[in-house]
Amino acid sequence: EARSTDVGHRDLDGRQRGSHALQWRSSSRRTRVDGNREERVAAARAVELRHMREVCLIVPCYNEEGRLRRETFLEFVRARPQASLCLVDDGSSDGTLKALEALRVEGGTRIIVQTLSKNSGKAEAVRQGVLYAASLERYGFLGYWDADLSTPLSQVDLLLAALEADPKRMLALGSRVKRLGSDIDRRATRHYLGRVFSTMASQLFDLPVYDSQCGAKLFRSQMAGPLFGGPFVTKWLFDVELLVRLRRHLGQSEFLDAAIEVPLTAWKEMGGSKLRLSHMLRVPIDLLRIRSRG
Hints:
Elements: H1 2-51, E1 55-61, H2 70-79, E2 83-90, H3 96-107, E3 111-116, H4 122-135, E4 141-145, H5 156-164, E5 171-175, E6 183-185, H6 188-205, E7 216-220, H7 224-228, H8 238-250, H9 252-258, E8 259-263, E9 266-268, H10 277-281, H11 283-293
Parallel strand pairs: 1-2, 1-4, 2-3, 5-8, 6-9
Antiparallel strand pairs: 4-7, 5-7
Helix pairs in contact: 2-3, 6-11, 8-9
């Protein structure tokens, strides 16, 4: 009887040991499975990072020494390993070039500085920067941004997402639409002048665009040649000319799918604009010049 009791205990101990061994093996398998899953996720992330398409923003700079936001540019490239900046000095007469060179030294290889020997205007500064960045054959997306950062650099994520959502999209335009949930700070006079200009451009070129002049644009790098290959007709209205060139390159039906306006969530009007009354008075003439070339 005692022997039977001992055997019972031994059987119970054996079953418990077997149960513990089973649990250990199950736990070990779970650990290996979880480990394998984590390894697969890590590998997938590594592949995703390696294949993520890089973006380069061209920033035209003319006499920007006094308002160049150095830390903001540095924070942008530090927070986005796949992003670069191409800062183009448009023949500045102040210390802009020196400030850009200092920024390049601190920012490393992802900050490029280009120099134009004489002031050629925003259109040509952007064009030269785009063509140089495209020649590096490193970037999947290129764009341009105003140096005063009236459009925060973080808004590039919105434009990039819009392009990546559809492979047919070639050009994304930031649009300053004041609406609930956005922070668009723009003087009423500038807003209404912009509406008059957009209406004129839309009617003259048959372009269904709300805001062609916002200084935040992003496009696929294969569009650098068709859009920026030749000099622009005007120094300040080249944004409209870009749309005309894109339509001419793709045709009307494909153009409507290729260009998209992206409402910005933030935009703030900055002082020190280089746009003068004389430029505004030339708008009708310049629009007609673009049309004659289109």
